[in-house]
Amino acid sequence: MWLPNIFSANHPKIPYYNSPLIHQNLVHKLNGQTQHNGPKINVVFRFLQRLTSGKKIDGGSRTVEEEKLYSWLYALAQSEKDLVYEYVRSTERGLSFAEADRRLKESGPNIPLENTFPKWWNLLWIASFHPFNIILLFLSVISYITSDSPNGCIMLILVFISVSFRFYQEYSSSKAAMKLAEFVRCPIKVQRCAGRIFQTEVQVKVDQKEVVPGDIVIVEPGDLFPGDVRLLESKHLVVSQSSLTGESDTTEKTAYVREDNSTPLLDLKNICFMGTSVVSGSGTGLVISTGLKTYLSTIFSKIGKKRPPDDFEKGIRHISYVLISVMLVVVTVIVLSVYFTSHDLSKSILFGISVASALTPQMLPLIVNTGLAKGALAMAKDRCIVKSLTAIRDMGSMDIICIDKTGTLTVNFSTMVNYFDSWGSPNETVLHFGFLNAYFQNQNKYPLDDAIMAYAYTNGYKFKPSKWNKIDEIPFDFTRRRVSVILETKMSAKDEQMSIGDRVLITKGALEDILSICSFIERVDEGRIFAFTKEDYRRITELSEKLSNEGYRVLGLAMKQPLPQVGVSSMICDKDIESNMVFVGLISFFDPPKDSAKEALWRLAEKGVKAKVLTGDTLSLAIRICKEVGIKTTHVITGPDLESLDTDSFHETVKRSTVFARLTPSQKLRVVQSLQTMGDHVVGFLGDGVNDSLALDAANVGISVDSGASMAKDFANIILLEKDLNVLVAGVEQGRLTFGNTMKYIKMSVIANLGSIISLLIATLIFGFEPLTPMQLLTQNILYNLGQIAIPWDKMEDVYVQTPQRWSLKGLATFTLWNGPLCSASDIATLLFLLLYYKVSRFDFEFFRSAWFVEGLLMQTLIIHLIRTEKIPFIQEVASWPVVCSTVVISTIGIVIPYTTMGNVLGLTALPLSYFGFLVVLFLGYFSFGQIIKRGYILVFKTWL
Fold it and tell me: What is its EC class (predicted)?
């Protein structure tokens, strides 16, 4: 066999993976394709391909990096071992220590992700860089410059609260990807070659970070694969890929096959992936990819990079830009108007700052975060930990929940369902032999054995294991896929037609492997044994397929009697002992759905949240579970079928399907992204495995459970201490309550603040002086803001929490245009009343300011009762007691202040009772016209908040 001398000094160094020539020749050669175009065309083609698919989030196509990885793995899976050595530039002896060191320097440490995270000061800057924060910081600085320290201090406190909440959330989540380091904390047995003249193979243990492409690794039970590996030799090798698939079932791997493109990637028999582990057997493999070029790294490198924009945060920014624009115009006009009247620039600027401060929704960060914190406390009572407060708000907008089946919809342990003879009829003999096999085997007891014994005990069967004496057992292994026990009777048993000392071999295992050792079949009703025929084989396999299609797991059962009276050691060593057996029957198992799952999904559906199941398990089992819990299964699809679809078909299929089976982590991610980007849905994802981490990170709301993998919990926003979907229903209700109360404040603030500022502008232009002094405006603003603190404790109407709630900037603008003019109209009515009834002039500024102060404060305090409900306030719907108490307290303070010493300090004067009579009429008219406008708005737009 010819092998290149890759360690000679004269040999050219060709990068093992990044070499375009090697990779291109390997892939196209194995796919039967020939290059006919020149290099320039190839360059242009690759450039266009990068533009179209490299960074685009369409959910349906793989990126250039993924395509490159898939081509590389499939090409090596189809290659003979000699060719694999050549392309990875290694030898049968392995790499020399010098060459391994050179490659380690060239490719870098073998870690699946670059654990580089933003520094804390970067996160602090990001948290601080928010339009409202910038506005408040700017105004606070100006306030201090103009000696308005109280106003500046208040704004700084509000900024500090907002920034602290945001910084804490960002800093906590930035460390989540560090959990990938769990995959690189074990020594790896590597074969290297040493010697200057005569090279010999030596086996050494190196840290996984030091493994390089071209290394030959030796793996045994419990070992993790240090990279993507092409098997060279294998012996009964069984691998757990749960870190990639989420399913507990193991898969057999072998070096002695050549795969083709039709095999799904994770089903390739001769390729083992980084992060997967050896369950049993052993093997030798050639490392073909390490570090950032592995399949694990490719899929997890997407974490945190493709999360859709937060509609709420985006909407807040748009509002801030609008308010800034209005502020610049209005404040400029007011400052100039006051300056031309008073010719006092400092006084004019101070008043302008007060107006700008009043226009800014200063309490928004506090109201939002208080509402979210309140929601988190409420969910904590339902045994639910909220890691990211914003996830509560997103749960209120969530309209699709994607669920990983295993352990979420199901109880995650199998129970025995039935037992059949070879004709499909229940037969107690089958259960009897199954029970004896499960009872007496003890070397490798599996959950299915416990399920058989539990079924027998709970259904009152008394099989009397004391009548039997165990001679020995042949334990389960993944080659035979069966377990056998040899029993001997202690006493005569007529019903079993056996005498003292008779021996029997009872074997249980995978049906296919049981049938392969059976030569006879027992017709129990006749008590006779016949030769095993092709018709028997067809009938039994059809019964098994029927049970499998219904979502059951099936085991076969066989027996052999009598056994020769020889020594135990001779019997066990006889390779033919498990042969010419009698087929007894089948036993079926099922992982049942949780009792609470169906009710919870029905309640979620009532609230407009549709469920989709995304699982790595088989389609038949997924369909069975979904039927049990009430999820429609008219449109289902598997991961391999999804992989073959073009982009448009992919999105259409994702939109239509409710059950997705045999999905890889990348496919789960693409399904979630497709629902978000193409379907414009707010998506929640509930999963508990490492394989769910991508989808958990990309979803709007990532939900895991306390018993889930540590990485899944790190990427989740919400952790359930109990696997009960009813907690999600409570979370959805809490999210919509929080969202609704937040929207109350936002809509009320925009309407009240804009109306108030426009009224101030009109009054300033008419009178030529400030309608309120900066101190009066600041006091009014403080009292108004204190009154809004109770909003997070308000209640929402039942109709509101029945449907998902989404932020709509267009809806907010329309809402403001419909309802905003009424506030300004009320202020103008007050202005006209003061001019016409009290004959107020520009010289009666104390009386005018007192009247304007009280009316403005009452207007801004009472408006919440009109905005908060679709119904008639105080008559059909009353706010929660904290809101009512807040309204009464703030209104009382506002009315009383002009009559107190504090009022004198502020420059206010006592008001006549006739003015309060006018205010009663004014507010009755305001609420009456407001209700008419509200009904018209609801009639046109079919919604209110």
Answer: translocase
